[in-house]
Amino acid sequence: MAKFNLDPQEIVDKEFDIEFKGYSPDQVDMMLDQVIKDYQTYQKLVNDLDMKVEDLERTNASLRAKLIELEGKLKAQSEGSSMSAGAANVDILKRLSRLEKQVFDEKNRQ
Predict the structure, then answer these.
(1) Sign, CA torsion 40/45/49/52
(2) Which residues contact 45 (CB under 8 A, 6 or more apart)?
(3) Helix/strand/coil (H, E, C) string of the chain?
């Protein structure tokens, strides 16, 4: 995270030199009080957003891991189904071959 030049306490502790025809110290104090409040709000917002970013990064990493796992399962399943389809084709060919033998053997006997 970027380092700020000022923090709320530094703003509060800031002392201004009083010169002839200078700014009104009360007005400066009121303005600095508003700056401090805005700065604290901004700092809280940044901290909240940092926490959300960390949470989203964890969620993203978790979802990426699940995606990789599911892609692996899908690939294994598609490879397995193509293998089982090939095995089913071999079984069909064996059955067909046996039926042909039976049919031709019966024709040869007659």
Answers:
(1) positive
(2) none
(3) CCCCCCCHHHHHHCCCCCCCCCCCHHHHHHHHHHHHHHHHHHHHHHHHHHHHHHHHHHHHHHHHHHHHHHHHHHHHHHHHHHHHHHHHHHHHHHHHHHHHHHHHHHHHHC
| 46 contact partners, CB below 8 Å, separation of at least 6 | 1
Report d(CA 75, CA 73) in Å as an integer.
5
Percent of the chain with pLDDT strictly greater than 90? 21
Q: Sketch the domain layout of the chain as residue ranges.
A: 22-109
Q: pTM to 2 decimals? A: 0.52
